[in-house]
């Protein structure tokens, strides 16, 4: 009780937090995040720079969590706020970034089953000072350049911290996500899995009969902070956690 009162008092001293984002503000954020690809939006559609128009809503109200995972609209994709920086373990079914509109990302990065993602792959050297192996990533949206910067910054961290970032477990993988049947950001070469030895994954822990999933994480916060500074979200901020996983999702940052 005392803590609650203290917290309430502290909140009252904070500058007024912005109101919940309107639909139009959410779409502004999306368009701002992908300036090379998107040119604008109205209430119902986004417009791509090549003139393609896509609906933002599928008209289905009250979707369940599973329906959102399998069939997210563009609005569903940007609905859950992503908490930047150190944060508490996620609440039940709070998976910011796991709702992805497949048509949106296929248009953005290509369809890996049709060989379209390959055309945009470039090679970067991951952690030149600590590991120095070539990795193929997409150049779309400057992902390759951003990962180069992430790599340089992680390379400058102390050895015990950067050890969590190599050897990597992979970038491009055309397989569907185990529990959703949908393409993950690995299908677009816009995600990277770090060192398996420092990783925890909800499905490994989810075999028990427990009703809730116990959160686990061994990924250093400095690595998470580095990726977030460059527009990558972390799978450790999901209730269905995947702590080696980072993906480029600038639309989830409130910049
Ligand atoms: Zn991954």
TrEMBL record:
Q: Which InterPro entries match?
A: Peptidase_M15C, Zn_M74/Hedgehog-like
Keyword tags: Signal
Where the record annotates domain Peptidase M15C, the positions are 179-248
The protein's matches in SUPFAM superfamilies, at most eight in alphabetical order, are given as: Hedgehog/DD-peptidase (SSF55166)
Please tell me whether the keyword Electron transport is annotated for this protein: no
Taxonomic superkingdom: Bacteria
Entry-linked Pfam families = Peptidase_M15_4
Q: What range does the record give for the signal peptide? A: 1-20
Does the keyword field hold Signal?
A: yes
Know the name of this protein?
M15 family metallopeptidase
């Amino acid at each position: 009780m005392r803590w609650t009162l203290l917290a309430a008092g502290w909140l009252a001293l904070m500058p007024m937090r912005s109101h919940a984002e309107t639909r139009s503000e959410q779409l502004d954020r999306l368009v701002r995040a992908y300036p090379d690809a998107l040119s604008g939006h109205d209430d119902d559609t986004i417009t791509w720079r090549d003139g393609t128009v896509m609906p933002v809503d599928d008209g289905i109200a009250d979707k369940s969590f599973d329906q959102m995972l399998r069939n997210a609209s563009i609005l569903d994709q940007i609905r859950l706020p992503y908490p930047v920086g150190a944060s508490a373990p996620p609440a039940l079914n709070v998976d910011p970034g796991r709702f992805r509109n497949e048509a949106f990302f296929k248009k953005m990065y290509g369809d890996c089953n049709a060989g379209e993602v390959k055309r945009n792959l470039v090679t970067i050297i991951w952690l030149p000072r600590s590991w120095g192996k070539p990795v193929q990533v997409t150049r779309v949206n400057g992902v390759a350049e951003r990962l180069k910067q992430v790599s340089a910054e992680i390379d400058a961290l102390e050895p015990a911290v950067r050890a969590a970032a190599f050897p990597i477990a992979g970038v491009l993988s055309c397989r569907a996500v185990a529990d959703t049947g949908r393409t993950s950001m690995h299908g677009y070469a816009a995600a990277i899995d770090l060192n398996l030895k420092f990783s925890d994954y909800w499905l490994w822990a989810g075999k028990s009969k427990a009703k809730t999933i116990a959160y686990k994480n061994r990924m250093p916060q400095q690595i998470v902070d580095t990726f977030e500074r460059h527009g990558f979200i972390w799978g450790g901020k999901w209730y269905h956690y995947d702590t080696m996983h980072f993906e480029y999702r600038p639309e989830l940052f409130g910049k």
